[in-house]
C-alpha cells in the first residue's frame, strides 16, 4: 500500500493503523460516540474497522480514513474520514466526517484536518466537499464554517435524523 501522509507542520494525517485501536478507545467519549460512531467501540470492532479502512486504501475503495496526529511522536488526536461515494452524494462530491478526542478539542486541529483532507480530495478528483452535521452539533458546524464551507440544503440520514449540509468547492484547491 502506498502510504499517504499529509501535513501542515502542526498536524499530520496518515491512514489508520491497527496500533491506533487502543488510543482510539481511550479517547472515545459521549460526544464522539453520539455524533460520529453511533455506539461505544470495542477493541474487536475498532480493529475490524481499521482493517476495513486499510483494505479500502489497498483497493482504492471509496473510503480514505486518516488518523489526525499531533507532535513529533504523532500522537493520535482523532480521526477524519473522506468518502468518495456514499448515498446522497452527487458525482464529484466527497463526504468529510471528523472527530477529536476530548483533550485535543478547542485547538483548531479539526479545522486544520478538514483543510488538509480537502486538498487531498481535490488532488484525487473531488469537485465539492460535503460535511453533514446534526443541527445540535454546534462545534462541528463551526469547524465546517472555519474551513470555508458554506451552508447548503438540509437533508436526512438513513435513520431519519435531520442533517445540515455544509459545502466547499474543491476546484479552488487545485488552482
Automatic annotation (TrEMBL):
Entries under PROSITE patterns matching the protein: GNAT (PS51186)
Coiled-coil annotated residue ranges, if any: none
A single GO molecular function term of this UniProt record: acyltransferase activity
Domain N-acetyltransferase: 11-168
Assigned EC number: 2.3.-.-
The entry's keywords: Acyltransferase, Transferase
The keyword Thylakoid is annotated on this UniProt entry: no
Stored InterPro entries: Acyl_CoA_acyltransferase, GNAT_dom, Ribosomal_N-acetyltransferase
Source superkingdom: Bacteria
SUPFAM superfamilies the UniProt entry points to: Acyl-CoA N-acyltransferases (Nat) (SSF55729)
Gene3D superfamilies: 3.40.630.30
Enzyme class: transferase
Record protein name field: GNAT family N-acetyltransferase
Amino acid at each position: 500500500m502506498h502510504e499517504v501522509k499529509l501535513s501542515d507542520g502542526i498536524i499530520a494525517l496518515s491512514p489508520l493503523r491497527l496500533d491506533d485501536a487502543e488510543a482510539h478507545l481511550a479517547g472515545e467519549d459521549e460526544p464522539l460516540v453520539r455524533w460520529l460512531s453511533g455506539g461505544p467501540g470495542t477493541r474487536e470492532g475498532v480493529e475490524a474497522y481499521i482493517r476495513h479502512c486499510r483494505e479500502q486504501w489497498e483497493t482504492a475503495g471509496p473510503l480514505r480514513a486518516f488518523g489526525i496526529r499531533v507532535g513529533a511522536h504523532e500522537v493520535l488526536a482523532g480521526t477524519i474520514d473522506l468518502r468518495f461515494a456514499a448515498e446522497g452524494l452527487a458525482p464529484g462530491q466527497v463526504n468529510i466526517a471528523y472527530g477529536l478526542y476530548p483533550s485535543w478539542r478547542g485547538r483548531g486541529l479539526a479545522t486544520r484536518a478538514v483543510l488538509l483532507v480537502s486538498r487531498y480530495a481535490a488532488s484525487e478528483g473531488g469537485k465539492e466537499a460535503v460535511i453533514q452535521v446534526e443541527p445540535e452539533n454546534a462545534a462541528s458546524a463551526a469547524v465546517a464554517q472555519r474551513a470555508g464551507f458554506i451552508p447548503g440544503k438540509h437533508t436526512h440520514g438513513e435513520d431519519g435524523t435531520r442533517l445540515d449540509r455544509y459545502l466547499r468547492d474543491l476546484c479552488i484547491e487545485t488552482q
